[in-house]
Amino acid sequence: MAKAKSPLLTRPEGLYCPSGDFYIDPMRPVKRALVTHAHADHARAGHGAVLATRQTLDLMAIRYGDDFAGARQVADGEMTLGDTRVSFHPAGHVLGSAQISVTAEGQRVTVSGDYARVANPSCAEWEPVPCDIFVTEATFGLPVFRHPDPAGEAEKLLASVAAFPERAHIVGAYSLGKAQRVIMLLRQAGWDAPIYIHGALQRICDYHIAQGVALGDLRPATDDSMKKADFAGQIIIAPPSAFEATWAQRFPDPVLAFASGWMSVRARARQRGVELPLVISDHVDWADLTRTIDELNPAETWVTHGREDAVIRWCELQGRAARPLHLAGYEDEAE
Question: So what EC number does this one have (predicted)?
């Protein structure tokens, strides 16, 4: 029997579905885009129409303005686009993030976007979606990447605060997803004190709170009523770019921390001047990536934006069909 035709093709704009006439996370403006989540390397402004979860559409409006696309449609159950059935399923990456299931040409494809399998109280948990073809990221697609328990990393931060009560602790965290996850980890670890946030995080944190994510007492880090010494022993969350600005100098002898899966690479921490690396990632590590492929057991695995070669080699050793997509334009755990 001839192999069924794949419903997705790679084009310069990104993954394209001819039978539904849409792109998934396109890197250039297109007529119709299906978007997995609101990080800027997946969600771009300027499309004719965008189909995504309600939370992703809301976050895109916060980041790009209400006119970020010509039209918006909320993903709701299984939908038909042309001759194609599509549905959205939680990805466990950030608030509103989804895997997109595409069924056409006799095959079902799951495009995972960015996904994580570790419990994340700031978003819905990853959901397994049966498929013939699984499209997986490989951001941390090397055996060396095995992320520690994020609760332990939060405890590491609190231990440093206790050890250096005269210093402020500035935690670099991307404004969508990572910042809110770090806050939630600190709350779960028992930190009930105010957490101070950079202004770039305010609207996105407010939206999480409106969506029922209990971030607790958040206060602006630029509170003019507070003196420099008042921030001793306090935790401040800010975009990593704030490390390089005079903004950080308003705090007493700050301990610079950075929450990222890349902090397991000590050279990266040193390059950024990070004193306290926190290995907290919103992507699957090697163990969870390979476990996911095993559990889904797809007939074929497509690997994109990351360490494709290692994942494909692992699939070959397991007797699994796999190929790289070589999609350009995606960043590693960045905005």
Answer: 3.1.-.-
Tell whether 68 and 133 lie within a shared domain: yes
Residues 254 and 291 in one domain: no
List all residues 6 or more positions away from 305 whose beta carbon is below 8 Å from its beta carbon.
Answer: 137, 138, 139, 327, 330, 332
Chain segment 252-275, per-residue pLDDT in tens: 999 999 999 999 998 988 888 899
38 in the same domain as 135 = yes
The answer to the question of residue 331 being in a domain is no
Dihedral (CA of 125, 129, 135, 138) sign? positive
Q: Would you say residue 27 has pLDDT above 50? A: yes
Whole-structure pTM value: 0.94
Confidence at residue 4, expressed as pLDDT on a 0 to 100 scale: 58
- CA dist list (Å): 98 to 83, 92, 199, 317: 22, 8, 27, 29
Taking the C-alpha atoms of residue 314 and residue 33, their distance in angstroms, rounded to an integer, is: 32
Q: Are residues 127 and 88 in the same domain?
A: yes
* Sign for the pseudo-dihedral over CA of 131, 50, 175, 141: positive
For 273, the domain range is: 150-278
**How many domains does the chain divide into?**
2
Domain membership flag for residue 333 = no
How far apart CA 172 and CA 178 sit, in angstroms, is 9
Q: Distance between CA atoms of 95 and 125, rounded to whole angstroms?
A: 10
- Counting DSSP H helices and E strands in the chain, the numbers are 7, 19
For residue 128, being part of any structural domain is answered with yes
Look up the CATH number of the domain holding residue 174. 3.40.50
Query: Which structure tokens are listed for 283?
Result: 């992507």
Give the model confidence (pLDDT) of 43-75 as tens digits: 999 999 999 999 999 999 999 999 999 999 999
Residue (of 174, 181, 15) closest to 104 by Cα position: 15
Residue/partner pairs of 200-205 with CB below 8 Å, 24 or more apart? 200/175, 200/238, 200/239, 201/175, 201/237, 201/238, 201/239, 203/62, 204/59, 204/62, 204/63, 204/175, 204/176, 204/179, 204/180, 205/179, 205/180
